[in-house]
Amino acid sequence: MSSHLHPMLNTAIKAARAAGAIINRAALDVEAVRVAQKQINDYVTEVDQASEAAIIETLLTAYPGHGILAEESGRQHGAKNSEFVWIIDPLDGTTNFIHGFPYYCVSIALSVRGKVEHGVVYDPTRNDLFTATRGRGAFMNDRRVRVSKRTRLSECLLGTGFPYRPGDDFAGYLKMMADVMQHTHGLRRPGAAALDLAYVAAGFTDGFFETGLSIWDVAAGGLLVTEAGGLVGNFTGEANYLEQRECLAAPPRIYGQMVGLIGKYSKFAGVADKMTVQAAGSAEGRAD
Q1: Cystine design at 105: which of 27, 138, 182, 195 (Cβ 3.0–4.6 Å)?
Q2: Is 174 marked within a binding site?
Q3: Band of the pLDDT at 72, cuts 50, 70, 90?
């Protein structure tokens, strides 16, 4: 832990590293990990649960009066009415982990009176630690990071996530992806949104967009992006995105171009934009 960091951020780092150690040990024999299905294509492992328990124990030992919002256990731990709430994803990228695909992370954020103040995203496979405190910048392994300097969307490499649950709008997402792919340098789908956002903050990718995300997927990563000089919002560009299940992140000039491109696919888009998307789909249907 670092003496120059906020004590609460240091505690989050300690918790993330404890969880990462559990994940790395399990990764040595991933075939032995017990897996349960929450719903179709949505899994939880004993590693998710052990990782979450280690994080909660570390946080509540240091701050017993704080609240907890965790992916696997919800709000059953911690104080119920605290202004301080830890938002935890103990293993973002569980499907990757199950298959031995080394792209997953631990995500921990602290919300104070509804605003995210501290964030940690830890990649245990590479020992990469991304941290941010509101107003103090974003860091990767103690080195200050900034979003990319690219200004043209056509030169940008973007990250995304594909829909995979029953009821998701697969057809709509394919239209949006086709639109994006024609206007960018490339599109990647690594499979862990919190780490995808950290990569935008570090400038490894130039933007990110995905639907269907929960608050624990985006709370820490979103703070990393804004502290690295980027913008985060929903597809129409509105900043109140944490619980809207739409997330778009990019450097400011790329952000505006992405909103212009995919804003019409947002569930918050105006009637005219939605009709444009529907008309395009009808024209494609007639062409077929």
Answers
A1: 195
A2: no
A3: confident
pLDDT class of 105 with cuts at 50, 70, 90: very high
Half-sphere exposure of 251 (CA within 13 A, CB side): 20
Bridge partner list, 145: 138
Q: Is 42 marked within a binding site?
A: no
CATH architecture of 153-265: 3-Layer(aba) Sandwich (3.40)
- How large is the C-alpha radius of gyration of the chain? 19
DSSP run (H or E) holding 15? helix 7-27
Q: Indicate whether 276 pLDDT > 80.
A: no
Q: Which of 259, 270, 203 is nearest to 233 (CA)?
A: 259
Is 5 annotated as ligand-binding?
no
What residue ranges do the domains of the chain occupy?
A: 7-145, 153-265
The answer to whether 142 is a known ligand-binding residue is no
Residues 39, 97: Cα–Cα separation, whole Å: 17
**Which CATH code for domain 7-145?**
3.30.540.10
Reading the block at residue 270, the tokens are 């105006």
Encoding tokens for residue 108? Answer: 């921990």
Residue 168: the pLDDT is: 76
**204 contacts 163 by C-beta, under 8 angstroms:** no
Residue 83 annotated as binding site:
no
Q: How far is CA 116 from CA 62, 86, 219, 248, in A?
A: 19, 9, 7, 17
3 state DSSP class of 107: strand
**Contact at 8 Å (CB) between 105 and 93?**
yes
Average pLDDT rounded to a whole number, residues 113-120: 97
pLDDT confidence of 32, banded at 50, 70, 90? confident
d(CA 99, CA 249): 28
